[in-house]
Amino acid sequence: MSAVLVAGDGLARCAWVGDDDEYRRYHDEEWGRPLLDGRALFEKVCLEGFQAGLSWITILRKRPAFREAFHGFDVDAVAAMGDEDVERLLGNADIIRHRGKIASAIKNARITQELGTDGLSELIWSFAPDAGPRPETLQQVPGTTPESVALSKALRSRGYGFVGPTTMYALMQSAGLVDDHVVGCHRAQ
């Protein structure tokens, strides 16, 4: 499989984007761009947790519904959610209906309240690795790194859930801690 794919608009992109308009928009506008805002990082932590075991495009397509269901990922509003909210969300077919993931998002919000959104941002970014060589193939993009393992351990030690090393590496890619746009992609720096 080629590392890049040239779309109908003539732009070469990382081949994982395929021919999906939402993936193209996400790739071009979000993926790999440094994200420092703590509220937005909290949202990414939650969404990456919901993604575990599923495809990211599923989460992207459901993101508007997630934002509505989780009060725009306002940390205080999510932290205030309780058992009745969990039951209500389990009936919401527009999101991923997984009791553990829903409960984890609420628990993660409560932990983030204590840490503060700025604190969450500082914690996550403290694990940003030094820039390495740009991958030339999709096979050179790792699933985990020592930094994602360490970030996972740091978050788990504080009580966060659904923050495994693979999930945290996906967060690092999405939030721009690493830039895995492959050689030849128009977004490669």
UniProtKB/TrEMBL annotation:
SUPFAM superfamilies: DNA-glycosylase
Gene3D superfamilies: Hypothetical protein, domain 2 (1.10.340.30)
Domain of life: Bacteria
Pfam families cross-referenced by the UniProt entry: Adenine_glyco
NCBIfam families with a match to the protein in the record: tag (TIGR00624)
Protein name per the record: 3-methyladenine DNA glycosylase
